[in-house]
From TrEMBL:
CDD domains: Ribosomal_L13. GO terms for molecular function: mRNA binding; structural constituent of ribosome. Keywords: Ribonucleoprotein, Ribosomal protein. NCBIfam families: L13_A_E, PRK06394.1. Belongs to the universal ribosomal protein uL13 family. GO terms for cellular component: cytosolic large ribosomal subunit. Pfam families: Ribosomal_L13. The keyword Ribonucleoprotein applies. Coiled coil: none annotated. Part of the 50S ribosomal subunit. This protein is one of the early assembly proteins of the 50S ribosomal subunit, although it is not seen to bind rRNA by itself. It is important during the early stages of 50S assembly. It comes from Methanothermobacter marburgensis (strain ATCC BAA-927 / DSM 2133 / JCM 14651 / NBRC 100331 / OCM 82 / Marburg). This is Large ribosomal subunit protein uL13. HAMAP family: Ribosomal_uL13.
Length: 140
């Protein structure tokens, strides 16, 4: 299944994708930088900035936990949180997920699916994963 992430809400899309992965489907998500996080821009930025800075709060020399900055990796991490990742079933399901920034050449002519229950509709507050990634210092 190939999903176009443009205009979808992050949590809703991630929950649908995690269900499909647990059913054994291979899922490819394109345009991950255009997935929308609802809420104010200040709240969304502070949430992800706090996760990235977490490694140095208690011990600056400690090197974890790592949290991604790129939009495709943020989406993958969100889906991973919805899977039983510490069990073999969840780990195998997570291997079936591919996420990309933009549309790679091999998927140009493929038919892309949109998930109607994950569409943003008329959301007033929100920002795209690409914007948050740029604020966090990602290079993509």
């Amino acid at each position: 299944m190939i999903i176009n992430g443009e205009g979808h809400i992050l949590g809703r899309l991630a929950s649908v994708v995690s269900q499909k992965l647990l059913e054994g489907e291979e899922v490819v998500v394109l345009n991950a930088e255009k997935i929308i996080i609802t809420g104010s821009k200040q709240w969304a930025y502070s949430k992800y900035k706090q996760r990235i800075d977490r490694a140095s709060i208690s011990n600056p020399r400690r090197m974890g936990p790592k949290y991604p900055r790129r939009p495709d990796d943020i989406f993958r991490r969100t889906v991973r949180g919805m899977l039983p990742y510490r069990k073999s079933r969840g780990r195998e399901a997570f291997k079936g997920l591919k996420a990309y920034v933009g549309v790679p050449r091999e998927f140009k002519d493929e038919e892309m699916v949109e998930i109607p229950e994950a569409r943003a509709g008329n959301i007033k507050k929100g920002m795209e994963l690409g914007e948050i990634s740029e604020l966090l210092g990602a290079k993509f």
